[in-house]
Amino acid sequence: MRPNTRLQMMVIAGFAAAVGSCVNDPVQNTRLSALGDDFPAGLEETAYHRPGQPCLTCHDEKRGSSSAKFAVAGTIFWGTCNIDKTEAADDKVRNERCDLTPVRDAEVRLINTGGGRACAVTNCWGNFTFPTNDARIEFPFLVSVAKKGLDGQYLVQTQMGGHISREGSCAGCHDNPRRADSPGQVYLFAEDGRTGKVGIPPAARAVMDKDRTFKCPNEEPLRTCE
Ligand code: HEC
Ligand code: HEC
Q1: Alpha-carbon distance 146 to 134, whole Å?
Q2: Residues 106 and 114: beta-carbon distance below 8 Å
Q3: Which of 111, 160, 181, 185 to mutate to test the pocket of ligand 2 (most atoms within 8 A of CB)?
Q4: Ligand 2 centroid vs 101 CA: distance in angstroms?
Q5: How many other β-carbons are positioned within 10 Å of the β-carbon of residue 75?
Q6: Distances (CA, A) of 159 to 6, 122, 180, 187
Q7: Burial call 13-42: b when 16+ CB within 10 Å, e when fewer
């Protein structure tokens, strides 16, 4: 290692120790700083935080800086975010073209090659997590996302074509904007080609009407799924 590289690493490690929330791993620190400062300072770090971010950057069993460990985690949004870099810098365009409405009560299913299945339900910020101690969550696996309507029938069901072989963060691949090498944020809306979106349940809207805090004051206990 060249001396100046080592010096840089010491500086990074020193910075990490100073902010107190990072491990002394330059690769990990690069991942963390790549998240930018999208997450408003002062908000609590809870199950409702950082929708759309690569959760395992912090929640990975081995390298995660958070004490909470997950095998797989992510966020389900209603719509897409099809903007390029220049557009992303413009708040107005971003607000108009990026649908960050979270999908609550979406069912995320993992099916591994041995046939083992695991299912998690999203909370009111669209976030979901799978625990690290569940033997059914074994890479590689297929993933599907579904949502029931108010009548209890499935409203939408989508399936990812390829399988996931080791990346536990959906956002590790589903990075915005949608482009040749990224499918964009994970979304779950039905499109009829004429009117655009259909079937957006009022529950998701209600979340948006609130004051956009990262809490769900009236959230009932999470549903389970098979
Ligand atoms: C930049 C780091 C970081 C990212 C990215 C991140 N989290 Fe967290 N998360 C934390 C920290 C820190 C806590 C507070 C618990 C602790 O002190 O470790 C936390 C807490 C949580 C909790 C509560 C855990 C408990 O036991 O109370 C959940 C659930 C959670 N995060 C889910 C997610 C999900 C889902 C994502 C991705 C959409 C995500 N997190 C992204 C750092 C992060
Ligand atoms: C290793 C990279 C990778 C990871 C990790 C990943 N995806 Fe995907 N996903 C893709 C790619 C590439 C596509 C588009 C092609 C396809 O469907 O396979 C896709 C497509 C999808 C689709 C279908 C989208 C459509 O337009 O119909 C869904 C739903 C989906 N992913 C959900 C998820 C969820 C949920 C997670 C996390 C549990 C996840 N993905 C993790 C790469 C990934």
Answers
A1: 21
A2: no
A3: 160
A4: 18
A5: 25
A6: 45, 16, 19, 11
A7: beebeeeeebbebeebbebbeeeeeeeeee
pLDDT digits (tens, 9 = 90+) for 185-217: 998 875 544 444 444 444 444 444 444 444 565
Say how many Å lie between the CA of residue 87 and the centre of ligand 1.
29
Instruction: List C-alpha distances in Å: 139 to 84, 103, 118, 168, 209.
Output: 32, 25, 12, 9, 38
* Ligand 1 closest atom vs CA 129: 35
Q: Count Cβ atoms below 10 Å from residue 177 Cβ, excluding itself.
A: 18
Give residue 191 CA to ligand 1 midpoint distance, Å. 32
Q: What is the pLDDT of residues 64-82, one digit of tens each?
A: 999 999 999 999 988 888 7
Specify whether the CB–CB gap between 145 and 121 falls below 8 A: no
